[in-house]
Design a protein that fits this description.
Length: 282
């Protein structure tokens, strides 16, 4: 899997390092580690999961001390088990200790998201459905959290409000209904911009189909039989996305309805952190 440019990630990692070190640096390391002490440490998994965040963790160490030697042993997107060494870091001991918590925070969070995503993706096997994230991300960390979705085998929804036109229920209410909102979109949209519209009922879906102008329909908080009926009504004229109440035990039956996408906010807002640790080797 292709890494993001470090140029995009560096501001996030640098801000986290500054947060941890300001205003006086690492008082503990300065007090107890003699200058010039060298060490080798291993970043290891303490649980079962999918690796993510190795590029970000490496960047945390290198920003703290560019002379550190960082070797990644398990790449982003591959499985890991308890005791697996994901990365080794050698060089100045003080620099490693200063970067440790930031590296582990990023990597543990990203591994957790990738692991939960992979569990959802596994429930869609044998169907056309793709698991996708939402914009329910940690403020400031959307870039890395959406990268973790991809490491887990999922797909990204919008990165920002400018990526696509997504007409939600409040847009419909404010614009005066499905007809007026889709008419307005037809006049305003760029030929490069996709249009998605949210519906809560099959009656609303029939209105969307009658008016036209949307590329994707978001089927929000529908029960499974309604989702299956919606797919039949659409009959391939638009892409279909199921959203709302997409808990893991439900994914297999939702995927079996024939929807194209299943969007899950929990992938980023509720993923448990994968336990990782930095172990002293020498």
């Amino acid at each position: 899997m292709t890494d993001l440019p470090d140029l995009l990630l560096e501001p996030l990692v640098r801000a986290a390092l500054v947060e941890d070190l300001a205003p006086w640096g690492d008082a503990t390391t300065r007090a107890v580690i003699p200058a010039g002490t060298r060490a080798t440490n291993a970043l290891r998994s303490r649980g079962v999961g999918i690796v993510s965040g190795m590029q970000v963790a490496a960047l945390a160490f290198r920003l703290t001390d560019p002379t550190l030697t960082v070797t990644t042993h398990l790449a982003d997107g591959v499985p890991c088990a308890p005791g697996d060494t994901l990365m080794t870091i050698s060089g100045d001991a003080a620099a490693m200790l200063m970067a440790e918590r930031v590296a582990l925070n990023f990597a543990g969070r990203m591994c957790g998201i990738a692991t939960l995503t992979a569990a959802y993706v596994a429930e869609t096997r044998g169907t056309r459905a793709r698991i996708t994230c939402t914009r329910k991300t940690t403020p400031g960390l959307r870039l890395v959290e959406k990268a973790a979705i991809r490491h887990g085998g999922g797909f990204n929804h919008r990165f920002s409000l400018g990526d696509a036109i997504l007409i939600k229920d409040n847009h419909i209410a404010a614009a005066g209904g499905i007809g007026p909102v889709l008419t307005a979109v037809k006049a305003a949209r760029s030929h490069m911009m996709r249009v998605e519209i949210e519906v809560d009922t099959l009656d609303q879906l029939e209105q969307v189909l009658a008016v036209g102008g949307a590329d994707v329909v978001l089927l929000d908080n529908m029960d499974t039989p309604s989702l299956a009926q919606a797919v039949r009504l659409v009959a391939g004229r638009m892409l279909t996305e199921a959203s709302g109440n997409m808990s893991l035990p439900r994914i297999a039956e939702v995927a079996a309805t024939g929807v194209d996408y299943i969007s899950v906010g929990a992938l980023t807002h509720s993923a448990p952190v994968l336990d990782l640790g930095l172990d002293f080797l020498a």
